[in-house]
Amino acid sequence: MAKKRAIGEREQRVTQRTLHSVDETLRLPAITPPVTYPIETLVPQVRQQTPAVGQRATRPDGRLHGLGQTRFIDDLAFPGMLYARIKRAGIASARIRSIDTREAEAMPGVMAVLTGREIPVNSFGPSLKDQPVLADEHVRHAGDGVAAVAAVTGQIALEALDKIKVEYEPLPAVFDPLEALQDDAHKVHAPNGNIYATRVIRKGDVDKGFAASDHIFEGCFRTQMVEHVPLEPHAAIAMWDANGRLTIHSTLGRITLGRADISRTLKLPLNRIRIVATIVGGNFGGKNEITQEPVLALLSKKTGRPVKGVFTRTEEFIATTTRHPIIMDYRTGVTRDGRILARKVRLVLDGGAYCSWSETTLGKACILSAGPYNIDNLFVEALVVYTNKTMTGAMRGFGAPQVCFAYESHMDDIAAALQLDPLDIRLLNAFEEGSSSPTGQVLQSVVLKDSLLQAAGRYGWKDARQ
Amino acid sequence: MDISLIVNGETRSASVPAETTLLGLLRDHLQLTGTKLGCDVGDCGACTVLLDGKAVNACLVLAGQADGREVLTIEGLATRDELHPLQKAFEEHASLQCGFCGPGIILSAKALLDEVPDPSVPQIRDALSGNLCRCTGYTKMIEAIQDAARSLRGEPAEPNA
């Protein structure tokens, strides 16, 4: 084995020297940067034999990451590439009276300016198509894009944004989801109301359940908006070629869905669009749909040059999706010994200005809101409302972490009031093999009680409470 | 303005606008894209490089301030023969997930090991306090840094590592 490896190394050195001499003989331009790394790679045991279970595994991309050789989108560059920046509204609710781009277009180094009116179909979204690529008539949250610039440097594009004059007619705004439910609240997507999706689960008879209960407990729980903050900001490079074909390198996580949205917004057949997605520097659900891709594509079409756009950290916070804040009202009827007889839940999801993945989040939060507990009488009502804030969408768990915080906090409150051990009240009510979920799915491979007991045993739960 | 500095042991020169940061110089002018732009305001540490041996956020250093000085980026660690012990340990421990924070973390760790050959876990945590990993894989990074420290001291790796 050792001998074999030595021969391999010698062959490698010969190859390198030969390559170098070719470079020198042909007087090829020096390739920058002169990065060196070992040719011999680590072959993990896991990919040499099966079964892989029990073998030590490494990540196939680990070496490139450690060498700084992974090419993320912002690490790519193409000849003649331009840099795009998007002007953000900075006002939460307004009608756009006019956009004057003349001064920006006249700036040296600015190659093109784009506004929402130039986008063939200015709406997209994974379920409701309610989000404009660039706001054209109405601004519905402060992070809405209103115009974009492509320039020879990012600095010039940034300066050009200040030269774009947008005249707004301010409109009333609504920021609290409960206020948005009121009849007289400002309608974010007038004439439609602010509630844009609802889900209801009915199981058994909650009124009877509450009547039979010894105690009834109520609790209200609220969570806040959370941004994914991937270390790599959203980035894309669009190239519209002379055949009318579009290539986009993008940080998109869902490329087929993204391609459909790009096709729709640009009125371009799917087969003319090629999406190249490379390694993503953190997604967490925040890169599941298009953002600036159609804008870059049209800027590329206007200029005939590749156009790159990279979001700033500020844009990551104000102009990409976030986690839904949820207001969660719980009412639970229990027997004296802590068995749950009935539960009523109301969830109000703050959907922000656009739908995005709200419907998925709503459904999942609704189904999981009762917790992993056997409850015969259940009523869950969940709704998601528009507000004039950054849109909320997919994020790890799709609503599950919010409701988990609520129902587990609620369980602790009930246990404390009944002077029960928080572990015991969970064991009394927990799902077992064959339990059915709130929507009637019969569950298999349920190890909830085993997990709780194992965890309690390992961390000395009972000892700590004595 | 004209700038000349030593990058990864080689003298490099560039003519850049005065507002160019060291990060912009490395990425856009020298094509050393291993150094990442994460926030551009000095919060995330993805752009960490070693300037005269000290870990700095390249987005907060102007290219002009680096004139005549010595910069080490992630591209300057490995050789044709072997990975740097930190890179080797990070690969073997699968310490990097999306990898975007990796170059900065490895360089912060190198700055630590250059000064403290046998760091404690709190010392490692302290050295990484300016580097964010949103995949939250810090545990494996700390293990890898301990492993690399052992290797740099000439000790064998932990038997179970």
Report on the architecture of this protein.
The complex is a heterodimer of chains A (466) and B (161). Chain A is built from 14 helices and 17 strands. Chain A has 466 residues and is an alpha+beta fold. Chain A has a domain at 178-227 and 321-465: Aldehyde Oxidoreductase, domain 4. Chain A starts with a helix and ends with a helix. By secondary structure, chain B is of the alpha+beta class. Chain B has two domains: 2-73, Beta-grasp domain (Ubiquitin-like (UB roll), Roll), CATH 3.10.20; 85-152, [2Fe-2S]-binding domain (DNA polymerase, domain 1, Orthogonal Bundle), CATH 1.10.150. Chain B has a five-stranded mixed beta sheet, sandwiched between helices. In chain B, α2 crosses α5 (138-152). The N and C termini of chain B lie far apart (49 Å). The mean pLDDT of chain B is 95. At the A-B interface, α2 of A face α2 and α3 of B.
Task: Summarize the entry for a quick read.
The complex is a heterodimer of chains A (466) and B (161). With 466 residues, chain A is of the alpha+beta class.
List key phrases describing it.
heterodimer, A: 466 residues, alpha+beta, Aldehyde Oxidoreductase, domain 4, seven-stranded mixed β-sheet, five-stranded mixed β-sheet, 14 helices, 17 strands, globular, disordered N terminus, B: 161 residues, Ubiquitin-like (UB roll), DNA polymerase, domain 1, 2 domains, 5 helices, 32% helix, 14% strand
